[in-house]
Amino acid sequence: xxxxxxxxxxxxxxxxxxxxxxxxxxxxxAKTNDPVSSAVAEPGAATNRHEPHEPxxxxxxxxxxxxxxxxxxxxxxxxxxxxxxxxxxxxxxIYYVTPWLRWDRGPFAPDQAVLIDLANRRFYMFSxxxxxxxxxxxxGMLIMAGIGLFLVTSAVGRAWCGYACPQTVWTDVxxxxxxxxxGDRNARMRLDKAPWTIGKVTRRAFKWSIYLAISFATGGxxxxxxxxxxxxxREFFSGEAAPVAYGTVLILTGTxxxxxxxxxxxxxxxxxxxPRIQTAMLDEKSLIxxxxxxxxxxxxxxxKAQKNPEKFGDCIDCTECVxxxxxxxxxxxxxxxxxxxxxxxxxxxxxxxxDIGRPRGLIDYATLEACEAEAAGAPPQPAWKALLRPxxxxxxxxxxxxxxxxxxxxxxxxxxxxxxxxDRNPPFMLMSDGSVRNSYTxxxxxxxxxPREMEVAVEGLPGAVMWTDTIAREDAATKQTFTVSADQIRxxxxxxxxxxxTKAQDFSFRLTSLDEQGESDVVExxxxxxxxx
Length: 533
Fold this sequence. Notes:
Blueprint: E1 24-26, E2 29-31, H1 79-97, E3 114-117, E4 122-125, E5 128-130, H2 135-156, H3 159-164, H4 166-182, H5 185-193, H6 198-223, H7 229-238, H8 243-263, H9 265-271, H10 274-281, E6 288-291, H11 293-296, H12 302-307, H13 320-324, H14 344-356, E7 363-366, H15 368-375, H16 383-387, H17 390-412, E8 416-422, E9 429-430, E10 436-446, E11 452-459, E12 465-468, E13 479-484, E14 488-498, E15 505-513, E16 520-527
Helix pairs in contact: 2-17, 4-6, 4-8, 6-8
């Protein structure tokens, strides 16, 4: 805008220029003392905007990507660390040892205890054998696993992430290798900052070779679940295995080496969707690893607290809780997505509290509700009380009901099964004597680990007789007997003939095993005739 007398302003603004002159642009970057929205301002602009959990900013960051800060967690010992050792030992033992376990199923079935036989479409787990048409058992187990995760999360927070998740387990293994090769936290930090000398290169190559060996063993163990383990191992190293075996091992070796050896906590924080799902299932009654700020704040050293004990809380700001954390977070900043609830910070804090003569539990497994009550003067609530609440009991009831249903179905399932498929073209054949013939494809399934004699009978169709491609027309009868190999399906081409003038109607095939079990299966089908309805 111009002055009333028509002259241009002294600051160089043109007439009609309505720009905001409180913003100064330097090198294409807006500079201002007023708050600037990060949604419209360029990087580097002055701003007062910040997220609730962040300190106030003075300028916007130059990039939205934050470079990873290497986590060098410190060795710690305590109840939770020992429990973590136990879980790691159990899970790794199950993974690496299970393919080598044997289970006698007789001479007609594989003797590997756990086997996913894709070629024959079978899943074996000790005495349980799952066929393709019984996939509902697998679906039921997957549902149980999902509800089990919901149960664990609602009860004790992200305990799955902290103890049993494969990413956590293998990351823990690699972190222990770091300590074995490079030393504890301070030694590893010094080595990271040191220049790349021959000694550092040698040490890194040795450590990464151990990473690679463990990663290769991980990929190699996985493929052993899909074929006889001793046979596949021999074929693998002799070059006789299928290409898919080598490809699978290569992919799993690479992912384990990369995710467990180098990305580690980044997988948990950025890549995995489960932490975000889990946090939605937590509430104020869920047990989580919690820093009791009302007791620990304000922080101060032991000497400061001794001089003025009323001024400082129990936290002496030793940062031991941060140093032992495998994801490098500070639990004192409150619940955050980087916390995997491994509780190693509890072990570290309890040890410090013991050394300085203060009560344990500054960092503890507790519910937010119990913490509020304790801050108001109530006594600490035992952790087990948080488990017995309606939400966890409902989850447990659903989980248990599904498990009992699956067990009942396994115990009562029939090991004999019949499938009937009538021919559609032609639907029937009219014989020279006026009789009518229909054709069917029968599949006799023997789910036992031994050969069985089975009888197929025609029921509900007056005057009907049956023969097959292997049984002569002269030997037609209402019942025929077949031998079905162990753990196999036998396909039978069957022909059913009825007297002239028989109307179209429904009837049944009954399959009966001729052994001590005497199992049977009945399938209803239809007979098509010229005078049919």
